[in-house]
Amino acid sequence: MILTAESTGLLAPHRGDTIYEGTVGSTGISLAALARARGYRAHICMPSDQSTEKATLLHHLGATVERVPPAPITSPDHFVNLARRRAAEHTARGDGTRGFFADQFESAANYAAHEETTGPEILRQTGGRVDAFVAGAGTGGTISGVARYLKRTAGLATRVVLADPQGSGLYNKVRHGVMYAATEREGTRRRSQVDSVVEGIGINRLTANFEAGRELVDDAVRVTDEQACRMARWLVERDGVFVGSSSAVNCVAAVATALRMPRGSVVVTVLCDSGTRHVSKFWKQVGEMGLEDEDEGWGVEVGEEALLKAIGLKGST
Asked: Residues in domain Tryptophan synthase beta chain-like PALP (predicted)?
């Protein structure tokens, strides 16, 4: 996104330009780090209900962090709309510097980067065989870009599966063609809807990035918060891998997908966030569920059946 902006004259290094973005996850952190390295400043708008670790890290990376109350996308105070407005206000100052709104949800540079880099990397690492690719969608850039590469460029018959947390409408969009989440039922909607401890994926609108690959998505798996928490704890106990909420959702959906495929199939997913960015919210929930207690029995049962039992998939798909 930065390279595209530079090539079109929307950004120029060491001129005083600022990159603005509305984000709940890793994109803002990446932009903040790259902004400094390339001679820009970063201004990140994010919802106030996100984990404090992210805001702290952004601050240490030199970004200006503006935390705002959660609001619907139709509101001018939604974190994405606020970032767009802040960029326009910066440019309107007329002091020779520019404010650039990165627009990760709608920028074609997002999915194109995954089509050009992530997809080929996956194919190299698997020796050219990918029977299924499973990923969540925040902006939709990862799943669309990888799907476009694997199915169109590489010509594989890869099954592409969306991993969707509770509270998101994308599952129903993929499975039934209607953007709808159960929390939108009459009598269940709240002014500030917080439906999941999962951050970074799950959304109730269609983005340009998701649309770029939507027709290539074959199926969707809905993952509950409890399943995500249990998977995260399993990965720590059995593999020594400390993941965040999005990665845990991806892994649950990958297991569910594997259950529906022939034994020996190659199922690929993405570990897109570290647990260190999710300690105060997601991993707090893991602890409150008692999953970190010594008497929980995580170190006793082993094998495939134990995993399925732990994440609530035993005997189901």
From this structure: 11-273
> How far is the CA of 106 from the CAs of 1, 111, 207, in angstroms?
11, 9, 6
- Partners of residue 18 on adjacent β-strands: 41, 99
Round to whole Å and give the CA distance between 132 and 136.
Answer: 14
The gap between the terminal CA atoms of the chain, to the nearest Å, is: 38
71: which 2 tokens? Answer: 């609001």
**DSSP per-residue codes, 147-177:** HIIIIIIS---PEEEEEEETT-SHHHHHHHS
**Length of the chain measured in residues:** 317
SS3 at position 133: strand
**C-beta neighbour count of 240 within 10 angstroms:** 7
CA distance 243 to 164: 17
Residues 5, 91 contacting (CB under 8 angstroms):
no
DSSP 138: S
Q: Whole-prediction pTM value?
A: 0.91
Query: What digits encode the pLDDT tens for the residues 204-224?
Result: 999 999 999 999 999 999 999
With 60 as the cut, is the pLDDT of residue 21 above it?
Answer: yes
What whole-number distance in Å separates Cα of residue 129 and Cα of residue 262?
A: 14
Best CA proximity match to 240, nearest among 180, 298, 293? 298
Residues 244 and 282 sit within 8 Å (Cβ to Cβ): yes
Other CB atoms closer than 10 Å to residue 35's CB: what's the count?
26
Cα angle, residue 97 at apex, residues 24 and 75 outer, rounded to 5°: 35
Coil vs helix vs strand at 43: strand
d(CA 265, CA 22): 38
Q: What pLDDT, on a 0 to 100 scale, did the predictor assign at position 50?
A: 86
Do 11 and 98 form a contact (C-beta atoms < 8 A)? yes
pLDDT (0 to 100) of residue 316: 43
d(CA 201, CA 216): 19
Burial of residue 173 (number of CB atoms within 10 Å: 0-12, 13-18, 19+) = buried
